[in-house]
Fold each of these.
Amino acid sequence: TRTAQALRTLPKTELHLHIEGTLEPELALRLAERNGVTLPFDGLDDLRSRYHFADLQSFLDLYYQLMSVLRTREDFADLMFAYLTHAHEDGVRRAEIFFDPQVHMNNGLDYNLVLDGLQDGIARGRDAYGIDAALILSVVRDLPVESAQALLDAAAPRASELLAIGLDSAEVGYPPELFEQVYERAAGMGLHLVAHAGEEGPAEYIRQALDVLHVERIDHGVRIVDDPALVQRVAAEGIGLTVCPLSNLRLQVVDDVANVPIRQLLDAGVRVTVNSDDPAYFGGYIARNYTALAETGLPVTALATIAGNSIEACFAPEEGKAAMR
Ligand code: ADE
Ligand code: ZN
């Protein structure tokens, strides 16, 4: 439709995207074969039948299982380039992309192999499309804090290749405050600071991410609507919220896309952005998230505001932002 086309061409950034969440089932099976990895699925139809999630954890179980097919530098390069191709088609000028090295390291891979492969894919995307991409080192919060510190040990020699640190995986029971020292150290390495908070967890976790971790953006953050004072504060401070509507729907955070509190947050003056999170699992890349909101009656003018917010909330230098506006 014309609206869908208009939403695709809006200049935008994507600020909440897990590269491992772009692993399409076809590619997962192809890499399993290429790398001799055995998966407990009987072909594509059987694998596809597993994409029904009751909550965040049931998604994470499949997401971590499929990550075992990623073995070589080329695998990571191919995965990144495939994502950047989708992103470019959806009007993305810049993407700030999470990766989960602890999982790959637990699968026996070297941190540098993972980083090299992702950087190869980013270079291919820049050459092919002029798209700008940067990496967010994401800490898996349901692994021990010592594992996060070991991750920073591995990441430190090439910290200048990283944009930011993030915090993801199972939220409830793993409050941000556990990672105070990890974030302090990451800040000392020159990284920007973001964290998932208020997806399944309470608004209190958003408050901790701000006050204890000193994050500059909140990933998801939809539960902030339970705390009106916090909504006012985040609006006043210009903190970006990276909301992911199709993710919230598929993980049963909401029962309908219309109930993702986008309009409420925009009306309160919050710097809301729209993103795809794990598009291979949740039914669409970023433009599909925009159109899903348009289908709920959110005006195209509001979606243009959101695309503008995504440029303001990104960590590109001011000249880079100006070039995207
Ligand atoms: N890892 C990948 N996607 C995630 C999400 N939506 N929440 C927490 N951890 C994740
Ligand atoms: Zn996420």
Amino acid sequence: MSDRDGKIWMDGQMVDWREAKIHVLSHTLHYGCGAFEGVRAYKTDKGTAIFRLQEHTDRLFNSAKILRMAIPFTKDQVNEAQRAVVRENQLESCYLRPLTWIGDKKLGVSPKGNTIHLMVAAWAWGAYLGEEGLKRGIRVKTSSYTRHHVNITMTQAKAVSNYTNSILANMEVTDEGYDEALLLDSSGFVSEGAGENIFVVKDGVIYTPDLSAGALNGITRNTIFHIAKDLGLEIVQKRITRDEVYIADEAFFTGTAAEVTPIRELDRIQLGAGSRGPITEKIQNAFFDIVNGRNPQYAHWLTLV
Ligand code: PMP
């Protein structure tokens, strides 16, 4: 990914893509304390627009707060950096990756006295779990790895270190030919995917784990709450068991990268009809209408670059 043309915003400056480097003794590289965001911009009739930019920036600052890192920029500067990166790289639809890390001034577990940095990169990135997955649904397996307990690494921070758990789970199941992993919390209840929140549909009601299961408070998850309300569908946040997923009528993953991806199978058990369910499809259509600027009710969620 490093050998390409383009610009990356680094600590307040646009830097050539190939020159956007850090030192091998950077604290975050050794101890894993850092936070990031995944954001998308979509092509709309009015131009390219970043979806829920403010919410992503707010979450980045909250993640940093949880990790006791003081980002040396204002939220407005971080918003502007994201807009600028999309413009500079002349991207129409893209994924954005802001990341904050601890510098190379000193090592040792304590980061006190070290510097805090921030970068924003952006690049074109299609459907995370495949175009086919968006239409037909994906095959998921419950991972043998447990999701972080809420009092180990902080689960409301989109922390770099939390993703070791996601990587292990994802590699475990994709090695066996599945598309993505589902993780259970330390009590055995459904938490989330390796990089997605999960929803299930049963008898016309939508269920999703409450955040005590250690799932990230997804911005797409929140978007689904709005969509469901608009569609007159009830959403319940509660503890969910894996066998409740097995007998659900429909299930889907949500995330900035994954968007709204139907799940057609869990642990080799077919969910519902084994394809994208009708409620999932309605939600997916509403989601793509919103992010692509076709629903004026949500114009305030789109920031033109
Ligand atoms: N859970 C995890 C672990 C994730 O990495 C993501 C992606 N950021 C999500 C949930 C979904 O969050 P969002 O909808 O804000 O992208």
